[in-house]
Design brief:
Distance between the termini: 44 Å
Order of helices and strands: EEEHEEHEEHEHEHEHEHHEEHHHH
CATH topology of the largest domain: Rossmann fold
GO molecular function: ceramide kinase activity
Mean pLDDT: 84
Protein name: DAGKc domain-containing protein
CATH class of the largest domain: Alpha Beta
Number of strands: 13
Structural class: alpha/beta
Organism: Amphiprion ocellaris (Clown anemonefish)
Shape: elongated
Low-confidence stretches: 38-47, 379-383
CATH architecture of the largest domain: 3-Layer(aba) Sandwich
CATH superfamily of the largest domain: Probable inorganic polyphosphate/atp-NAD kinase, domain 1
Number of helices: 12
Strand order of the largest sheet: 1-2-3-4
Helix content: 25-40%
Strand content: 15-25%
Largest sheet: 4 strands, antiparallel
Length: about 375
Amino acid sequence: MDKQAKLLSSRLFLKLRQVEVVLNRSVLTWREADKERKRSSGISEAAHGRSVQVCEIVAVGRTEDGDDKRTRKSRKEAKRHSQLYPCAFTVSFVMRTRQHQWRCSEVTFHCNDQELCNQWVRVTNEQLSLLTNRPKSLLVYINPFGGKRRGKRIYEQKVAPVFRRAGISTDVIVTERANHARDHLKTEASLDKCDGVVCVGGDGMFSEILHGLVSRTQTDHGVDENQPDAELVSCSLRIGIIPAGSTDCVCFATVGANDPVTSALHIIVGDSQPMDVCSVHHDDIFLRYSVSLLGYGFYGDLMTDSERKRWLGPARYDLSGVKTFLSHNYYKGTVSFLPAEGNLGNPKDKLQCRSGCRICQHKPSSKDQHSEMSDKKEKSPKV
């Protein structure tokens, strides 16, 4: 594969060491420039190098005096160094840690040329502006009552600072009652001015956002939700989830962790995970939408009883589960389904799911491909 052309290449200083910093359209790399020192120390070149994907850079900006944190031991050296190289810029980027968690790390480069410093900031930000999947404006709904009632504090202390660093403007609404977010999205929200909707809460809050956004989309496109055979219109806006609930199942299923900072960084870099949405009807009347789970009978009774015990936090599910089990209720029902044709998965977005089952992993054989080509020939109009 051909190497990409360098957009910028300079010798800068990082923590009193001179480094060679290179930027191309996809990667920012830096490594120590003093090779003689590396040979004498016996440390390999790879140990002193680092690379960051441009798509995982959160922000780039000039570093003002006092922004570069130093320990007491190196304060004198840092002061002397800043006098020699007074110009600096900081790159904030995604750093992966354990168990699917992300953190926002940063690196500060120094030089003595103000024009060079400004050039690095300008060119890097130009590359970030080409990433069109990144949001610039978000509508945020916070549920202050979900989980352990820490939704507002989680957003203000952990999420909002990261959004500000990335230059994302937000319109924040703190919900005051059940279905407040759903009703606001369906009737009042100005969706043309935002690039996405973020919910701070648990699975119930996500359900509110989902129902409000999907219903608003169907209304705008003239789709009757009460018609079971109606084809739903996909939402153009994405939903971001900041976990602050009791279980956060949907967040776990999409991100792999229920960590607020991790979710915020996924939102910033524009990551997305397609999800199927199904509608539930009864006698040609729309009931609700479902994404992760649709329960009947035991699960419905459990959830109804647990809602009366929200003050217990996550423990309410265990208590309500035991209580519902000991009630010995039974439920009748019939499940009808249409078997799938063939053994191949055909997602609309052409992306494989993450479950690892054989359906998406199956590679069509030459016989399958020949059969598909024959079908296409039969379906094509004859002249």
